[in-house]
Every structure is written in C-alpha cells, then in structure tokens.
Amino acid sequence: MIFFVFIGLLSCPLPVDASDGKCENWPAWNSFRSKFVSDEGRVVDRSLPQHVTTSEGQAYGLMFALIANDRASFDLILRWTENNLANGDLTSQLPAWNWGKRTDESWGVIDGNAATDADLWIAYALNEAGRLWKTPKYSALAELLAARILREETAEIPGLGLVLLPGPKGFHADETTWRFNPSYLPIQIMRRFAVTYPDSDWKKIAETSLEIIVRSSPLGFVPEWVDYQTGKGFLSGNSAALGSGFNAIRVYLWAGMLDSRDTASHILLKKLAPMGRHVASSGTLLREINTPSGVVKESASAGFSSALIPFLKASKQGVALHQQHQRIVALSPLDRTDNYYDQVLTLFGLGWLEGHYKFERDGTFKPRWICTES
C-alpha cells in the first residue's frame, strides 16, 4: 500500500518550494480578484445573501495583493477599507468588522465592533508593504494601527498576563471570565511587530498568544472559541470550546507557515500533532471536532485541506500532504464563485506551498517577486 502511495507522489509531484521557483505572476490571485473584489476595492463574500464584506476579507485582500506585487489593487482595497469601515480615517479608529446589506435594505456597517485578527493583518500588510514598496505612509499607518490594537484590543488577565482579545467589545463576560479565539493569534505577525516596534508590548503578546493556543487545546485539536476564568483556567468542556471549524482551521495554517527556526513552530507542531496524525492515518480531513474528546463530527471542505497543507508539510507528513493536495485538485475550489472562505484558505495554503511567499524567523514577509531585485 505504501509502495503505491509513493508511486503516486512521484507521478504527480507537488509544487516546488520558494527557493526553486521563478519570478512569476500569481494566477490564483487574478482569479480571486476578478470574482470577489469589486471595482471599488470591496472584497465581497457572495456566499451570504447580504453579500457582506468583513474587515478580515479586506485584510486578506491586502495580503494577497502584496504577495502578487499588485500595488494598484492594494491601494484600491485600502482606500475602500478606510472610507467605509473606518469613517474615512484609519488613523483615528479601528475598522468595523462587518459591512453589507442591512435589514432596511440600505448598505453600510452592520456591526461596528472591530475584529482583532483583521486589524493585525491590515497593520502587518501595511508594515511590510511600506518596507517592500518603500512607501513611508504605509509604514506610518501600520505603526498607528499596531499601537491602537495594543490600546483597545488587549487586557491584563490574572494568570495569563497581557493578552489579545478578539475585539474591543464583547469578550469580557464578567469580572473573572474572558473569551478568546485562537485563530486570531498569528505568531509571525507578533514577531514582526516586536522587532519593528521594540519598545512596545508585542513580545509579551507573542508569548501569551502561544500560551493561549497551547493551553486551550488539551488534546491537540484547536477550539473555535474558548473561555478563560481566573482560578479555573481554560474551560475546555463548555459549548463555546467545541469544534475545530471555520475559525480554528487557521491556527494550523498560521502554525505551519512559521519559520522552522522559530521556537513557536516546534511547540505548535508538537502540540497540534494529533490533527496531522488523524489526517495521515485516515486520509480524511475534519470539519469539526469535539475538542475535549477528540470525536469527529463531520468532514471538511477543500479550503480546509488547503489550510492544512503548510502544517502537514512542516510536520513532514508527506503522504497526508499528497492526499490533501490531490483532494484540492479534485474539488477545484478556485473554479467557484460562491466560496469566499474556501478560496481565501486555498490562496494562503497553496500560495505558500508553491513558494509565492514565506515568513522569516522574525516574522518578516518575503514574497517571491522580490527575487527580481536580487
């Protein structure tokens, strides 16, 4: 059986790493842009009747435009984000997380609360765009956003320290209870901010973020949401902690893309290994898991396979990596127009595998197109 699996690997090779790649355009971004990015720069989730736009979608659009060296689209997406999610000024407020068709049929902000994951990726995209495209205004805006995140989306929690909350409001149920979303904590961004802003608290945030991911995943399966209560710790048995679904799958994605020299990479690959082992042994990808018991609830979409690609490669699960890549090819998620989230995960996962970008040990972003300058 193993013999035939390896024959398959040889006859259908996986994409090359960045070091083997040539400078080239990114067709997957061109396709995504044509389907999901409006002429005004709004990233539209067409899977929902409200055709919503989230700050997350805008953040990912900025990252993909940067990966593709598409400055025109980057500027368009940034302008729409600022004008529509931040009342025209990202220097004065965090962007609202949800915009779309409201109940009165008008269009605009549906929920004005911010989402920390989106804010992190927007600030990171701006910081790296400022460096790579030599544009000081991007760098200045990134610094302001990063500082605002620390002021408005953090809390000092007994037993944990200074931590990132999922947003400014709604995640502190009472005096002793806080709620977290582990997928909102990409360590590479915090590494980069700790270097870029050395007098800030980003190094502490990286440490507590890693602790949250590890301590909230007792069996190595990451929860969607998890509550923390002083004196009791993470409440992994409650309903909020069940699942390894839409949000949580990104934890494996961010972890898999960490530089192998980062100590967090070793810690997370070891802690989250049960997911990789399950996929390797069963050939099945999980859509949702009861995290305390590890019981599988349903299978996953092609986007989930894409999100696991970097994790499986970093974990040296070659057979599972091949199986999931073949599953992506068979399901062809990039051919559809109604699967925004699947396509986001696919662009991140396959874009990394194909060498269009990577993250350095200190979180520095390195897209393939900079090889034209070397």
The CATH architecture of the domain at 25-149 can be given as Alpha/alpha barrel
What CATH calls the topology of the domain at 25-149 is: Glycosyltransferase
Helicity range? 40-55%
Mean pLDDT: 88
Report the C-alpha radius of gyration, rounded.
Answer: 20 Å
How much strand content do the residues show? Answer: 5-15%
The run of helices and strands is HHEHHEEHHEEEHHEEHHHEEHHHEE
Number of helices: 14
Short description:
With 374 residues, the protein is of the alpha+beta class. It is built from 14 helices and twelve strands.
What are the defining features of this structure?
Glycosyltransferase, 14 helices, disordered N terminus, single chain, 3-stranded antiparallel sheet, 47% helix, 374 residues, alpha+beta
Provide an overview of this structure.
- With about 375 residues, the protein is α+β, with helices and mostly antiparallel strands.
- It has a domain at about 25-150: Glycosyltransferase (Alpha/alpha barrel), CATH 1.50.10.10.
- It is built from 14 helices and twelve strands.
- The chain has a three-stranded antiparallel beta sheet. The protein has a three-stranded antiparallel beta sheet with strand order 6-7-8, with no helix packed on it.
- Helix 5 (about 115-130) packs antiparallel against helix 6 (about 135-150) and helix 9 packs parallel to helix 12 (about 300-315).
- The N and C termini lie far apart (about 45 Å).
